[in-house]
Amino acid sequence: MSANVTVAIVGRPNVGKSTLFNRLVGRKIAIVDDTPGVTRDRREGLGRIGDLTFTLVDTAGYEDANDDSLEARMRRQTEMAIAEADVILFMIDARAGLTPTDEHFSRLLRKADKEIHVIGNKAEGRAAEAGLVEAYALGFGEAIPLSAEHGLGLADLYSIISQAVDKADEAKAAAAEAEFDYDMVQKPAVDVDVNEDEGEDLAGDTAPMRWNPNRYLNVAIVGRPNAGKSTLINRMVGEERLLTGPEAGITRDSIMVPWEWEGRVINLVDTAGIRRKSRVQKKLEKLSVSDSLRSIQYAEVVVLLLDATIPFEKQDLALADLVEREGRAMVIAVNKWDLIEDKNAKILELRAECERLLPQLRGIPLVTMSGLQGRNIDKLMKAIFEIERTWNVKIRTAKLNRWLAAMTEHHPPPAVSGRRLKLRYMTQAKTRPPSFIVFASRPDALPKAYQRYIVNGLREDFNLPGTPIRLWVRGGKNPYVDDDGK
Is Repeat found in the keyword set (predicted)? Predict the structure, then answer.
């Protein structure tokens, strides 16, 4: 049983909101640590209890701040989550009892005119009994005893959310009945042509394999701290969805933000800024970096965001190399382009540096933009779609072998230990990224330089700029040739 019901978990810092969020979504996707204030952005996930599914929102710990400090901006993110929620789970620490912050927060929640339930977390053992009694003073009725760490008290949560689901179903049914046009019942059905092909067929010798350009696309935005990743995503989606500010390292969790561009759903993933490993000392930053690296592994396209004022730092190159080794499609976006005065000279310099420093990704798309002003977002999306298309390309085997014969004729494999190597056959094993197998007479002896020669030829002759290319050399005979050579 499911409905479009949004449940927000709110409360002061360090009461266990992210722990409950992870338990209900069934994965440890929100960073959890004993340090207060770990969560900063609001994170959404699909919550489940029994047969119920619902949208679950984890929020930053509420702190009273009236200026434009980081805490005040975090509080505004929580207030947005409250405004969008159908049910609010107001979590307190049952062992610590009520605090002035809890009481102040409860007064603000009453103004929200929402369905509010108090959750007394860390309620295992007798130490929590006094705090659960104190919760009556908040004015929301009896607190639900719960242990997010150990999964106790979920049955009471099920009862609360199931009632909200029933109300949502009733409201949806009433709205559908009110909008139903009874005159349409007498009208004949209209035949609709349905295109059953999931993928697009490309002309020529290349074609995508199992690629549907209408499916959703996971795009991770990565880069060094303060490169403007959260600002860019906010500009793309048209709202202050993510916490931003002048401070470096604001983002901690990797936050996925669904967005639609030209009729296609794009899952934008904001990640924490990644510094050099030697500078990452604190445990919390290590958790954030690990979360960012995991986002790269699950993305299909990675946007490496550079700061135009200090591009191609050592850490930028390390991130680009990591994305290439993971086999993800990548676009380089040079942000803060509005700060550059001589733009023509700078773009020539950037392209030359890109070709020199990233030879393994020759031809990678490079887009200049301003996330703050929203400039060239359309060019960024065009580059993303183009690199995704290249990442999904499938080259026909017959074409590959004709090409391999021409390549070896132009530049034959070298002789090793007095014996010349033979490349007998080539095929594409998979896409995403394009991966090829070459069958050779002595696979272990084929020099790395000749393998690079083949990869560079593939990239140039089959128009595969910027995408990682995998090449495996195997022993064996051409499967289409008999043992007698015919």
Answer: yes
The answer to whether the annotation marks 223 as part of a ligand binding site is yes
Ligand-binding site membership of 58 (annotated): yes
In Å, how far are 99, 132, 152, 161 from 141, measured between CA atoms? 17, 11, 20, 16
Task: Tell me whether residue 273 is annotated as binding.
Answer: yes
Judged by average pLDDT, the poorest of 31-40, 265-274, 386-395 is: 31-40
- Residue 15, annotated as binding a ligand: yes
Q: Is 399 annotated as contributing to ligand binding?
A: no
Give Cα 467 to chain centroid, integer Å: 19
Alpha carbon distance 429, 431 (integer Å): 7
CA angle 354, 388, 359 (to 5 degrees): 25
Q: Which amino acid is at 231?
A: T
pLDDT at 279 exceeding the cut of 70: no
Identity of the highest mean pLDDT range in 230-244, 397-411, 466-480: 397-411
- Residues 63-119: pLDDT tens digits? 766 666 777 778 888 888 899 999 999 999 999 899 988 998 898 898 888 899 999
Q: pTM score, two decimals?
A: 0.75
* Residue 187 is assigned to a ligand binding site: no
**Per-residue pLDDT at 468 exceeds 70:** yes
Q: Which pLDDT band holds residue 213 (cuts at 50, 70, 90)?
A: low
Residue 476 annotated in ligand binding? no
272 labelled binding-site residue: yes
Q: Is 238 annotated as a binding residue?
A: no
Contact 347, 311 (CB under 8 A): no
Strands 423-430 and 415-416, by their bridges, are unpaired
Phi-psi region of 207 (alpha: psi -120 to 50; beta: other; left: phi over 0): beta
Does the annotation flag 22 for ligand binding?
no
Averaged over 133-152, what is the pLDDT?
90
13 is in an annotated binding site: yes
| Average pLDDT of the segment spanning 139-151 | 90
Q: Are 464 and 458 in contact (CB under 8 A)?
A: yes
| Model confidence at 276: pLDDT above 80 | no
Q: What is the residue-averaged pLDDT of the chain? A: 83
The verdict on whether residue 143 carries a ligand-binding annotation is no
Q: Give mean pLDDT, residues 323-329.
A: 94
